[in-house]
User: Fold Growth arrest-specific protein 8 domain-containing protein from Trichomonas vaginalis.
Amino acid sequence: MNESRATISSFFEGDSSISKRSNSSRRSNKSKIPIKIVPKSIRKINSEENSEISQNTVKENDKQLDDIENEENDVEIYEEYKKLQKDIDKLVRYKQLKERELSELKTKSQKEIQIYLKKIEYLSNTFNNPEMNQNKKKISSQSELSEVLSAEKESFLSEIHDTDSDLTKQKKFSKFIDQLEAVYTNNYNTMKYDLEEQKLKAITEAKKNANNAIQETEMQHATEMEQLQNYYQKTTQEQLETIKDLKSKIARLRPQDTQQTQEFDNSEKKKSVLLLEIEKLQKENNELKLKTQDADKLSAELKKVTEVVEELEDEKENELIADEVLSKRFEQLEEERNAMYDQFEAMIKDVHQKAEFRGYILAQKIQKMNEMLDSKERQLQTSIAKGSVGNAMQVKIDQALAEKNSRINQLESQLMNMHNAYEKMTDMYEAKIASFGVDNNAS
Assistant:
């Protein structure tokens, strides 16, 4: 019971909740659109066992829906009607689903009964089959026969002696066989009785199980059908109440509709007057648009010109700043040039003085050397003239003269080198002064 209720509640949870309209008026000022509701035909529930739900409630629903069809409703009422219709369709689908489950349970129970009957037929056939009975006889009486045969054999051997005749042996053997047949018949009858009892027990148990399964399924179906009936009746009552509420709301809202139609007519008249004024204003607006377009063009051109002027002014300021920077740089370079020129001039004078001084010293050394040579030559000539100089002395004099001549030549070459270095230095300083833009003639 609880499981079936849970399944019903889970199936209709969230979907069967009927959305009721709030009391606050949600109607807009728009013109009402008459919507004729075309209801779906409510499906009649064809149940094999229960016919208590349906006819009266369905007829009442049809009447209420026909009343709604003939009236002009708004969109919200139509949406609520759709929701109600969906809930009804879901109820019908759930009922059909439960009917299918019940039919499946019935077919399953019938199949189980047929299986039990087939088993019973098989047992009866096997019991009545002579070949199977023979096998049963052999199998079932084998243990008991062995015991009886062993006992009778011992008694028979104890009674029979070698001295007996053949007739007595045959009689005793026939008695033994009769006893065996009696034992076998007793065993067979007991086995047959036991098999019949087992067969009856199996048949009764199968019938009981089948009946119990059918009763359980019928009870489950009955409880679920009762729950469905109660739920369907509740939903139909709620739907009828909502339909009545909708009718009352429609009756209340009709006078508001008339007022709104009058207001709409007045608004239409005002609208026509306003449209004429709007046309005039549109013409004036178009003229103003043309003027504004011309003004926009002129303003765009002015913007371009002002942008060009601003760019030129920026360039002018940048050039003035660059000119000032260059002038300052030029003044600094002039000052540096003058300082360098003064330094070069002082250095040149210093070098010139040093070179002249060295040349003067060298010239004096050369004069002294020449004077010494002249005096030495005079002494030599006088000594040669007197004839007092020997060969050895002559050799020494020649060597001394050669050394002195070589020394003189070295001094002359140094003097020439000094003159050349001085000239190169002066040329180099003059070239540097010219590269700095200083005029030698002016200096």
